[in-house]
């Protein structure tokens, strides 16, 4: 509407408008977020039903139903580990979970937690469930093109878990945190003096939750990670080098070891270069599409996400190796300024004293290197660290200095702030 009634201020604004107008709108509906874990109801094949069916068809077998019995037995065996889920608001539909063996045990634990709470007549708290929240969304299947959205796309379930609840030791730590938070809320309510009926009901509900926290779910025992308080791992991020790591001794303020992005990825470093080449190719395709005034929405592969996971795993593995107590990463809101400063510094060093040449070089440098998804990388590091029980925090990164110096500064800044 704005483009039809308003003239753009300059060529830059005109290109922005053109990009938006030529971007193909998303045909998939918005995802549904379930913020409470009890919005999902888990189930599996009823074993009593299986036994009854096998018994029934065993009797029928002598009357010529042998082929049907064999087919039924084969089907039941294939369905033995199948799990199903219903969602609050979509309870008329039951969805079957398809996943690989690495993920299956998580879904089995979701079901077990729910069953224990049900069999205990609601004496357990869902606040100690491993599952925290979930999101149901559509994912486009590019291999199919029937013209029917329900055939061309598939439903994907994203689950958020608290890995501390996987072990008995981690559950104890999380329970004490929840208990302290509830007691503080109750004390604050009591300080208000005389309470209304609704406030009294709220306090009573908190007391009930407090009592339920004493009933723990059965969890396997696993020793909690114990890092050395004086050892901190700092991660610096930049445009040409997505991650550079420094292991620092906070007592001395000196680095124990450094790791470049090439050292972190090892033999997988070639994947980083491949990802950059793909982004360059997509950029050229978008530019050509823009010139032809055609659709310029070109999708990217999942290679970037895969490289992020490899980097995150390498960083957490290094933190464990040196027994780091925490991982410090840059604040995501500072990354734009950091990247711009890096480009400017490279342009000034390459072409000193010639401003126009510096601008051209900076533009070409952006095309060749491309901006990394720093938010995604930080999220992957956070997820990997939380699984191991390693603390993680965001620290302001300097816009100047080498990657190694910045990684060192980030680690020292975190240590000084927390001692």
Q: Summarize the helix and strand pattern as letters.
A: HHEEHHEEHEHEHHEEEHHHEHHHEH
Rg, alpha carbons = 28 Å
Overall pLDDT level: 80
Helicity, in percent?
40-55%
- Low-pLDDT parts are none
Notes on the protein architecture:
- This protein is globular.
- The chain has helices at residues 2-5, 11-22, 47-60, 66-78, 101-119, 149-152, 168-190, 197-212, 261-265, 269-291, 303-321, 335-350, 355-369, 374-388, 403-417; strands at residues 32-34, 40-44, 83-87, 95-96, 131-140, 153-161, 228-236, 244-249, 254-259, 324-330, 391-395.
- It has 419 residues and is of the alpha+beta class.
- The mean pLDDT is 80.
- The relative contact order is 0.09.
- α7 runs antiparallel to α8 (197-212), α11 (303-321) crosses α14 (374-388) and α12 packs across α13.
- The strands form three sheets. The protein has a five-stranded mixed sheet with strand order 9-8-7-10-11. A three-stranded antiparallel sheet has the order 1-5-6. A three-stranded antiparallel sheet has the order 2-3-4, with helices on one face.
- It contains 15 helices and eleven strands.
- A hairpin with a 7-residue loop joins β3 (83-87) and β4 (95-96).
């Amino acid at each position: 509407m704005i483009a039809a009634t308003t003239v753009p201020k300059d060529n830059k604004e005109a290109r922005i408008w053109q990009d938006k107008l030529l971007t193909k709108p998303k045909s998939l509906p918005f995802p549904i977020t379930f913020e409470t874990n009890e919005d999902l109801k888990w189930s599996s094949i009823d074993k009593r039903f299986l036994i009854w069916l096998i018994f029934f068809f065993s009797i029928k077998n002598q009357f010529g139903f042998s082929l049907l019995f064999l087919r039924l037995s084969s089907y039941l065996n294939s369905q033995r580990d199948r799990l199903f889920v219903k969602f609050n608001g979509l309870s008329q539909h039951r969805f079957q979970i398809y996943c690989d063996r690495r993920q299956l045990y998580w879904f089995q634990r979701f079901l077990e937690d729910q069953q224990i709470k049900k069999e205990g007549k609601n004496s357990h708290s869902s606040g100690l469930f491993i599952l925290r929240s979930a999101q149901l969304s559509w994912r486009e299947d590019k291999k199919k093109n029937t013209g029917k959205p329900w055939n061309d796309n598939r439903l994907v379930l994203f689950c958020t878990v608290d890995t501390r609840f996987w072990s008995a030791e981690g559950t104890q730590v999380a329970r004490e945190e929840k208990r302290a938070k509830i007691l503080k809320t109750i004390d604050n309510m009591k300080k208000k003096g005389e309470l209304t009926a609704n406030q009294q009901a709220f306090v009573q509900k908190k007391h009930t939750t407090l009592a339920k926290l004493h009933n723990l779910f059965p969890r396997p025992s696993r020793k909690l990670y114990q890092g050395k308080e004086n050892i901190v791992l700092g991660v610096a991020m930049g445009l040409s080098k997505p991650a550079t790591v420094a292991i620092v001794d906070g007592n001395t303020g000196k680095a124990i070891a450094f790791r470049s992005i090439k050292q972190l990825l090892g033999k997988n470093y070639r994947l980083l270069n491949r990802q950059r080449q793909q982004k360059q190719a997509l950029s050229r395709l978008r530019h050509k599409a823009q010139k032809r005034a055609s659709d310029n929405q070109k999708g990217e592969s999942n290679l970037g996400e895969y490289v992020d996971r490899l980097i995150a795993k390498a960083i957490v593995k290094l933190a464990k190796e040196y027994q780091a107590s925490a991982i410090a990463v840059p604040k995501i809101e500072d990354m734009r300024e950091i990247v711009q400063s890096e480009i400017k510094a490279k342009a000034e060093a390459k072409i000193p004293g010639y401003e126009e040449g510096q601008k051209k070089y900076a533009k070409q440098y952006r095309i060749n290197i491309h901006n990394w998804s720093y938010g995604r990388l930080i999220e992957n590091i956070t997820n990997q660290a939380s699984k191991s029980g390693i603390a993680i925090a965001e620290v302001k990164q300097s816009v100047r200095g080498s990657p190694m110096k910045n990684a060192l500064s980030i680690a020292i800044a975190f240590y000084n702030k927390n001692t």
